[in-house]
Amino acid sequence: MGRTLGTPNKITAEVRGKLENLINSLVDSIEIQNLNTSQRIKMLQIALQYTLPRLQAMVVKDETEDLPLFMEDIEVNVVTRKEDSDEEVWRDNFEVSDSYKIKGYKA
Questions:
Q1: Which of 34, 43, 56, 83 has the highest count of CB atoms within 10 angstroms of its CB?
Q2: What are phi and psi of 32, to 5 degrees?
Q3: Whole-number Cα distances in Å, 27 to 24, 52, 83
Q4: Are the C-beta atoms of 77 and 94 separated by less than 8 Å?
Q5: What are the backbone dihedrals phi and psi of residue 11, each rounded to the nearest 5 degrees, phi first?
């Protein structure tokens, strides 16, 4: 049987602690003033890999591909209820009061 779920590995924690101590002592012993510019940049580059999160590539989809190339004219009818209308079929209680046309477009 292994360890129970969520219990940290003792060896991994111990090794990680020793590595952390070793790195800290090495970094403390480096005299940055004695490094040339390229060495300083390289050190900064290495340090940033462990301090800043890495960015992941993003894919941007062009949504205009899905639009139709041509849209036909659209007619919009505004309906109002007829006054004093008691028709059994509900649709017969309304009439078109205004009509609008929207022109189509060509992409």
A1: 43
A2: -60, -30
A3: 5, 18, 88
A4: no
A5: -65, -45
